[in-house]
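Continuing the series of single-chain predictions for the mutant panel. This is the parent chain; the variants come on the following pages.
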Amino acid sequence: MGYAFARNLLKNHFRVHAWNREKARGEPLLADGVNLHDTPGEAVESADVILSVLADAKATLGIISETAPVCKKGAVFCQMGTIGIDETSEAARLLHSLNPSLCYIDAPVSGSKT
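Parent structure:
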């Protein structure tokens, strides 16, 4: 799903920095102008808006732990995975504990699971 978001952003002339757990999955976007990084921290460090589209809460919380400390002051962290209600609250708390300047937006693609 993140691939489709990135491709649409690139088609609309947005600058996109990306990271994927399997780097090869992002490589087809190189021809479209994506800046593909080796680590999630590198991908987010200069971003004003971060889109996180991960498969589950464990992955999402892991990425928040790794990236929040290096995010730009005042950046927007938009969490788009369907991770559940309790996990969404946990993600917001974790993000703010690591970088209180960040704005957390919960925008799951499929809606939160109950």
